[in-house]
Give the backbone structure.
Amino acid sequence: MNLDVSAGLQVGRLALDVSLRVEAGTVTAVLGPNAAGKTTLLRAIAGELAVERGWVRLGDRVFDEPPGTFVRPEHRRIGAVHQEGLLFPHLTALENVAFGPRSRRVPAATARRAAAQWLDRVGLGQQATSRPAALSGGQAQRVALARALASEPDLLLLDEPLSALDASTRAEVRRELRQHLAGFDGPTVVVTHDPVDALVLADHVTVVEAGRVVQAGTVAELAARPRSRYVAELIGTNLLEGRAAGAELVTADGTTVITSSGLHGPAYATVAPSAVALHLAEPQGSPRNRWRTTVEHLDLLGDRVRVQLGSPLGLVAEVTPAAVAELSLVEGAAVWASVKATEVSVYAG
């Protein structure tokens, strides 16, 4: 059964208006900056918030459709995993997992047997008698996942399930989580701010900003043609927006970028940070795009340095530490940036 959502509601200053469809057996990641409406969307699907317009449907069941239909959360057969796990501190791992089927009125003995099986499946059979305080962060999240799946839900909702874990544990739990989600027959929605989570866990991605969907598709589709600065930053590229007229793209502030495109009309363009060259003086020769700008800040990433530039385009350049020293790059320094026309990838807006 598929999840079909069209959620419109007002929560404080946030006006949420998001449509989402998740096929059975697939995982959709909802990405977006803080306060974009990701968790509000999840709460509407779960029934913690009622939609003011639109609907929430799972297969042929209508969970929420004003003005006349609203199914309470406990009757929606939804499994949920939250950022902190939200395990019951006074219950053992086995009792926490058994709570899922027990909430569906499964007999206690049957629920405990199911819980033991699920703990074995997530590799925590030896921790059955441990309470949450004795578990590591990764173990607690595995218990939370087992509790959600043990209730035999029709739909899984995961709200930042890995963000509370340290980097090494997050990678391990992410791999395990993908394996378990692959065996789940219903639709799954994962809210995250981490593009790696989306890449590993999800079949499709929906990007939400300020309560609206700005882009949706596979990770590869978003990476190839980002349509917002947030998406571009997620995948590590520069995004320009303007109007194309043959080989020229004119941005909103009037800056002209020379391209090798023949498009006409509203357009986006991406420029890889590695394609942005920096110079102490105005460059001569082949680069047709050159701008005088300033260095706003520098970030060391492994063996490369990402240099955030100021106006006119706010580009990010990626250079070597040796280049930083050679060019005396510091915050506030004046530099020239250049980009070859063939390095500008243009697509219709």
